[in-house]
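#struct-pred
JK: can someone run the complex with zinc ion? inputs below
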Amino acid sequence: MTFVFNLGFPRIGRRRELKKATEGYWKGAVSEKGLREAAREIRRANWIFQKDAGLDSIPCNDFSFYDHVLDAVALLGAVPPRYGWKGGTVDLDTYFAMARGAQREGLDVTAMEMTKWFDTNYHYIVPEFYQNQEFRLSSEKPFEEFEEAKAVVGGRARPVLVGPLSFVLLGKAKDEGVSPLRDVLPKVLDVYKEALGRLSAAGAEWVQFDEPCLVQDRSSEELEALKRTYQALAEAKGGVKILVATYFGHVGDAYDALAVLPVDGVAFDLVRGRRNLDFLREKGFPREKTFVAGVVDGRNVWLNDLEASLGLLQDARKHGVAGERLAVAPSCSLLHVPVDADQESALDAELRSWLAFAKQKVREAVALARALDGRRDEAFFDANRKALESRRTSKRTRNPQVRERVEKILASSPGRSTPAGERFKIQRERLPLPSFPTTTIGSFPQTQEVRKARLRFRKKEMSETDYKAFLKEKTRDVVELQEEIGLDVLVHGEFERNDMVEYFGELLDGFAFTQYGWVQSYGSRCVKPPVIFGDVARPRPMTTEWIGYAQSLTKKPLKGMLTGPVTILTWSFVRDDQPRSETCAQIAVALRDEVLDLESEGIRIVQIDEPTLREGMPLRKEERPEYLDWAVRSFLISSSGVRDETQIHTHMCYCEFGDIMESISALDADVLYIENSRSDQELLDVFKKFRYDKGVGPGVYDIHSPRVPGVEEMEENLRASAKVLDPGHLWVNPDCGLKTRGFEETTPTLKNMVAAAKRMRA
Ligand code: GLN
Ligand code: ZN
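RT: done, structure tokens with the ligand placed:
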């Protein structure tokens, strides 16, 4: 019999119940007991669903109040000293203080750092490692949730923990001389052994350790550590079976090491890591271990091609993993997809039939395992075949005109023909700007008032005419404010935009929006990514009305603001029936038309933001050049239709861009704004090595804090930049958009910034 596993289920609840409960708790409106009950309800519903669906092994401890890596921090007692934790079990308030910072009597601490979980849009809390740090089992969560799960699903409950190796590699040493692998791993292993021993004694059949770090390039030293880790755990496991779960790609060099680990099963991603199947074919897999085949895409929302998956599974079976040693599963935890496509009653039935969210994916995995065992659910397979057929042949997904245009533009190898240096001279004539020109990144504070108006408009409590009039008023105010502050290049403020991707998605063909398609981004924050299902086209201009209006109010140059093709792609669920690069090129062509429309409206500067250029990068180094190639090409498609005198700007946030400077330069933007405030030195080091010959605006202050930096401070930043970068090419700006800030701090800060620029000129 073929087993069916699930690696993890969404924890937010089908209507984001967890968000409501946690935020209520933070506000003091919900008691701890109330919060815990809401959480228990979500878990229970998830388990009952998975049990009824027919899963053989059901995850528990995949739930989290904030983040599963933070749960591991609590389990190991790795609470950084600044939280004043006294030992014992980590209480809920200490837990949330690590996640969000805290300000209460006797305590004023910032949150722990948060960063992207591999190449997803989920964020985890970064563990901190110190000299002589001690680790001790400090949370009952995995044991309590196991007991709770047992009561619902019995022996099928399978506790999930972040694997020790990934935990250590995801963390950061805070003291000099601390090597996570050498100093931290052996110590946390002792705690992991204790936890495993307890789960084993409590009667778990399987325990899952997530080791997604194995799909990145790993050194031989790290692979040695992998072996040591699981040898140590094997000694402590008693009667329990260990599953090592890898996902988000193929395991590369780690395959050989994984095959010989003293564990009982390994989960492989066969969607993003099709190479894993090649490894199986070439190298086989040990008889005594379970091969968990992740054939249902846990990262996207499309219906599985059941026949194709069945083919993969049969192939695996041919190569020696069969019977009870072959298990079917999603490719990764279902944390990264929404809960239930059946809720999307606002989508038309055809489009909905193409989608599979977490619940649908669980059912697909079960159906595949049954079919493999000769118990094929004909009706289910039939419905699947019909839905796939409708998607494949639908006119809605293909637009011949778009395809023809994209091909033509690609064939012309897009790019600006006049070199940046010459464009610089031409643009200087047309755009008489002072040296050290001042500007912002685009958005201005989105006040309560703006949000409220948008909500009322969406709920149809405000007419479109009134809403537009309101937005124009806000736009006019902010143009006036910028004149008063004395900025040189103005923006319209982006008040009409809820979100930098959703705004454009709603105006483009080929995008669909769900009602409840939320996925967790971090803590209680969820996002609802648009679904790109068809060819992307722009039926009409998207931004000219707002930007043209703002320009009509001022003589100063006003920037047109657009979200770049790579960012629109990265923050959406992308169709899987063609390469991402093709979808990106289509978006790029739509944006190209928008850029040209702005230009003909008299807009002299167009900014195309690409904050995700770096995060969209593949996890494996060898796959990066190809990605960067089409990402840069897409940007060039969008930006290169303009005349020489039109200036193209771009912006990137929080990125470690040192290693992709060549590609950033190849975007050929006339001005590049980059986030800088967190690490001036790093930025300057990059520019010492890489001679950048176009305009640069290294953010002169950090917009993530309400602090108002003084004139001297910003002047100093500028002086430091001017030492490394050509002062003739330096721009003066904040490091990101101001949408999350208030006007109280924004106005004085921008005034100081303008004063700093004036001092530089003098
Ligand atoms: N123009 C956008 C803004 O100012 C850029 C946002 C971003 O970089 N994430 O809000
Ligand atoms: Zn930014």
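RT: quick notes.
The CA atoms of residues 262 and 555 lie 72 Å apart.
The chain has a mean pLDDT of 96.
JK: thanks, will look after standup
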